[in-house]
Specification:
Helices cover about 70% and strands about 0% of the residues. It contains seven helices and no strands. It is globular. The longest helix is centred in the first third of the chain and has 30 residues. It is mainly α. The N and C termini lie far apart (about 45 Å).
Amino acid sequence: MFPENNGYVVWVSYALGPYWGFQQGWMKWLSGVIGNALYPVLFLDSLKSGIPALGGGLPRVVATWGLTILLTYLNYRGLTIVGGIAVCLVIFSLLPFVVMGLLAISYLEPSRWAVTNLNDVDWNLYLNTLFWNLNYWDSISTLSGEVENPKKTLPKALFFALILVVLSYFFPLLIGTGVVPVNRELWTDGYFLDI
């Protein structure tokens, strides 16, 4: 509807005026800064079971700052390099799960998939994690002015992206829970490295 590079700021400005459009842009930027600060920490949490030194102290501080500076520099270099690096990171992130899935087929115990206790679920944490994992889908709207025929292209791209995201979460969780005994206390950041 708004084929220009302002996305949600334009939507809110159109509906509520420029003051609230600015507030939306400011809050979204702040949310992005806070959210992006989590990625180096989550990455290091994933590595700490394989590299215990990254669990704390000076090595963790140096690694966190190093990753933050590297990612900031890559963003500074521009969208083309960020896009290429993003594709490489997706391959780097998903490849271990593909290998894990293929190696795990003979070890799967489907009966583990039915083990549940809905009374013991931390629903606040579950819903917050689900929201965080599926956040930022509106960010593509900030580039809609760069897209040829955005009214047709963006819904199609988002549909396929949704399928890929759901599959990239569903299959590793299905394989992980089918291979290892269900012990929810062990499922913390980086537990897939242990699996």
